[in-house]
Amino acid sequence: MPVDVSTLKIYRAGVSAVIAALCDTLRIPKIIDGEVEWDQAQCRLSPGTRVKALLINILVHRRALNRVERFFRDQDMEILFGSDMQVRAEELNDDALGRVLDKLSASDPKTIFSSVALNAAAMHNVPLDGLHVDTTSISVQGQYDGDGELDITFGYSKDHRPDLKQFMIGLTVTREGLPILGRSLNGNTSVVSQGNQRTGGQAEPRKTQRGNIRCRFRSGNHR
Question: 139 near 166, Cβ under 8 Å?
Fold first, then answer.
């Protein structure tokens, strides 16, 4: 039976399906949906689904928020999000993605990140008996008046740009280098004070009522 090729829809597969499958395997959408407050009656797509879309776009062909919708027009949405959800590209516009980023910001991103990382560690039996903490500085340009929660200001610059204001990122990793905790720090945070956090402690994972994994830390060595 002849096929009318003019009716065929061509998609760019690439690695999008692999990243979507990894997100589902690591339970990233479900974890986010369990941590972020949202009204199922008002939102057809959950915050976790929208964040999953952002992750696919960032890792495949990063675009500004106002161009993510265009990116998904050439993707097979059924493969990425399942046939039951029937996600449409126009539902991933910049307004919708901006709102979910606001919800993430209001829901303690540090907790969400650590929950995702700890679930991944539990799935692969990564030991949490040795943790290491370090910081790095991120230099920025422009004017910052310090009204926000994060104080972008001058401090010790690890990238050798003392002329620029900065903020710091603190990261806690396992022996294998898997990040399990991360936080943004003021630009003038002392490296010594940050280093005084636990660096040889032991993390004790525990499950919440929603099935997500969080950590309670036992004291370890201090530096």
Answer: yes
